[in-house]
């Protein structure tokens, strides 16, 4: 018998992690299985329903639509405890409290009305520990879907019960038009006045176009040339009011900025090592909920947020180099860890958590909250995306029913979600294994991952944005947002420079469920290849998923 090929170190590490998680019984993602009849019904709709562009006003979403107050969309709280309690007693009390929370939530919300949310107590425990030990909470949201990822209950708990400060980080602002970024910042600041709101991007310099873009792919190693660390530092200075010496952090930011301008890439020679602490469950269980603020003169910041909002990328950008792996798969960060940014600044990375809400499942998928790999029927989500984006000029598709003898004008033909998937499969060469037919399922998954990565930008809007768009486009604070995004002028904003290429804020994929074409382009685990940079410090991509060389 032929000898079996030995496992690689990466495979052995993965198997060991799975065994450890099975033994502990924690960090399992739970998903409801849909009935076969429901899946077939949506497939039929995807084949028959003609796609029609929705009005721009349909993209406007209010916070109360996602988190209605009367539905009791809270999150599980850690029950009271004292140091005389045994570990087993505390665990039983937490489990009982969590089950009571789920029962109360289901009593107010009939089946099918709630979105997918975290049912794993172990992951909620991580959130409790991070909030208890942090002095300042960095609540990170994706600027494309901020109201989906900002639970009001969390804001009121941190500012009201814990009496701590929140810094709302609007991440990935390079994926959104500047006026829309500014509109979201003002809307959220008005809704939640007791917090600081800052904009952030890990990859400034990417021109945005609402019509047609040349989309870059992820590369194996990125430069942490971030826009926004200085704004987070200034917010912390205002919060601490001199009680913590943040001068070392300010100097680090200045050194990183100089390194990017002079070298184009930051050297990782170990001169500024980062101390990392792993926290076991036992060590975290008996943390004091009334921790002294700024203990030993150290500012502790906790990074929390939904999956795929870029928590790990923000942390890497603040550190100046990669210390946390990133992935588009929800649940990638599983364990609570802390990193000393400077001797007086400590960062805590918490696993991504999905809070209960009333978000449409299609929107959850496009926002990266629900894993694409768990979808049984992705076509309705593709239709939802296409009705809200100008997909034809971007994808450059040929209708499946088009005859080669007649001139082709896709804008005059009727498209269904299934037609889009068939055409994209034909464009990308996705074929089924047995019959060599166009693989519409794989094409649908590919399109959804493009949307999650920001290569097909769907951006929600605050209430009233379509009516006041002219005011935001001429707002005096707009120049600051454009400068943060790294854009030179408004020509980049309008998409008139389509040939420019840049690194987007989409997180790198590291998992086995990604498409084969993506596997050829990038892998987040490898760090051997470097990205070439021009003299101005802007990243130049070496490939393009939808470049003219491929879609012409």
Automatic annotation (TrEMBL):
UniProt biased composition (Basic residues): 1-27
- Stretch list, region Disordered: 1-37, 486-537
Q: Name one GO molecular function term.
A: GTPase activity
**Membrane spanning residue stretches:** none
The domain of life for this entry's organism is Eukaryota
Provide ranges: composition bias, Acidic residues.
490-529
Task: Enumerate the spans annotated as G domain.
Answer: 301-355
Extract the Gene3D superfamilies matched here.
P-loop containing nucleotide triphosphate hydrolases
Q: Which UniProt keywords apply?
A: GTP-binding, Nucleotide-binding
Q: Which Pfam families match?
A: MMR_HSR1
Matching entries from InterPro entries are given as:
GNL1-like, GTP-bd, P-loop_NTPase
What does the protein in this record do?
A: Possible regulatory or functional link with the histocompatibility cluster.
> What is this protein called in UniProt?
Guanine nucleotide-binding protein-like 1
Lineage, opening ranks: Eukaryota, Metazoa, Chordata, Craniata, Vertebrata
Name of the encoding gene: LOC107723463
């Amino acid at each position: 018998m032929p000898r079996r090929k030995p496992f690689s170190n990466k495979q052995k590490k993965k198997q060991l992690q799975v065994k450890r998680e099975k033994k502990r019984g924690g960090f399992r993602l739970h998903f409801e299985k849909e009935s076969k009849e429901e899946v077939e019904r949506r497939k039929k709709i995807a084949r028959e329903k003609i796609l029609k562009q929705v009005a721009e006003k349909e993209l406007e979403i209010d916070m109360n639509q996602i988190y209605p107050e009367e539905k009791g969309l809270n999150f599980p709280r850690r029950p009271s405890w004292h140091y005389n309690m045994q570990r087993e007693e505390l665990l039983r009390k937490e489990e009982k409290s969590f089950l009571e929370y789920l029962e109360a939530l289901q009593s107010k919300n009939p089946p099918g009305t709630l979105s997918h949310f975290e049912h794993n107590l172990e992951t909620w425990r991580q959130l409790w520990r991070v909030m208890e030990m942090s002095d300042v909470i960095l609540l990170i949201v994706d600027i494309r879907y901020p109201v989906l990822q900002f639970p009001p209950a969390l804001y009121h708990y941190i500012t009201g019960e814990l009496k701590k400060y929140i810094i709302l980080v609007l991440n990935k602002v390079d994926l959104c038009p500047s006026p829309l970024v500014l509109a979201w910042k003002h809307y959220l600041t008005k809704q939640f006045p007791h917090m600081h709101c800052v904009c952030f991007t890990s990859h400034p310099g990417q021109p945005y176009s609402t019509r047609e873009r040349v989309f870059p792919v992820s590369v194996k190693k990125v430069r942490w040339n971030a826009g926004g660390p200085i704004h987070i530092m200034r917010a912390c200075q205002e919060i601490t009011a001199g009680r913590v010496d943040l001068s070392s952090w300010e100097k680090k930011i200045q050194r990183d900025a100089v390194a990017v301008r002079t070298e184009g890439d930051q050297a990782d020679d170990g001169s500024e090592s980062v101390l990392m602490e792993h926290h076991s469950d036992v060590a975290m269980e008996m943390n004091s909920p009334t921790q002294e603020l700024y203990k030993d003169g150290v500012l502790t910041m906790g990074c929390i947020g939904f999956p795929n909002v870029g928590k790990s990328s923000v942390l890497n950008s603040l550190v100046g180099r990669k210390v946390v792996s990133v992935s588009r798969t929800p649940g990638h960060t599983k364990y609570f860890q802390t990193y000393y940014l400077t001797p007086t600044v400590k960062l805590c990375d918490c696993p991504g958590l999905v809070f209960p809400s009333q978000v449409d499942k299609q929107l959850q998928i496009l926002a990266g909250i629900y894993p694409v790999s768990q979808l049984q029927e992705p076509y309705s989500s593709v239709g939802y995306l296409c009705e809200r984006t100008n997909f034809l000029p971007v994808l450059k598709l040929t209708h499946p029913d088009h005859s080669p003898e007649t001139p082709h004008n896709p804008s005059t033909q009727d498209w269904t979600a299934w037609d889009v998937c068939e055409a994209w499969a034909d464009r990308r060469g996705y074929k089924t294994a047995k019959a060599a037919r166009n693989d519409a399922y794989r094409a649908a998954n590919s399109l959804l991952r493009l949307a999650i990565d920001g290569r097909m930008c769907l951006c929600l809007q605050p209430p009233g944005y379509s009516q006041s768009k002219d005011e935001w486009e001429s707002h005096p604070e707009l120049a600051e947002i454009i400068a943060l995004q790294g854009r030179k002028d408004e020509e980049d904003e309008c998409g008139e420079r389509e040939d420019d290429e840049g690194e987007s804020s989409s997180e790198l994929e590291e998992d086995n469920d990604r498409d084969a074409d993506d596997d050829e382009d990038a892998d987040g685990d490898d760090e051997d290849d470097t990205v070439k940079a021009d003299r101005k410090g802007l990243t130049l991509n070496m490939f393009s998923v939808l470049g003219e060389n491929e879609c012409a």
